[in-house]
Design a protein that fits this description.
Strand content: 15-25%
Structural class: alpha+beta
Number of helices: 3
Order of helices and strands: EEEHEHH
Helix content: 25-40%
Largest sheet: 4 strands, mixed
Distance between the termini: 13 Å
Shape: globular
Length: 83
Amino acid sequence: MHAYERKLPIEEDLYCDFYLPTGKVYIEFWGLEDDPKYAHRKKIKQDLYAKYGFNLIELNDNHVQNLDDVLPRMLLKFDIKAY
């Protein structure tokens, strides 16, 4: 089970792309990295994830092209097994 566009449990108004309750892992897909406004927002979000010590998996276009190989390895870092 997962949640999409879930608000993080912090004072700041921040929503994740996906949340996996198993392992308490947040997933962000950074899709518009060439856009300066998007890059600025990305940095703010990354800083907030780090500030609160949240488990974060970050995906980009290259990861998505090989998602079946990449995501299970990333999940294993948080003791989540993909079946």
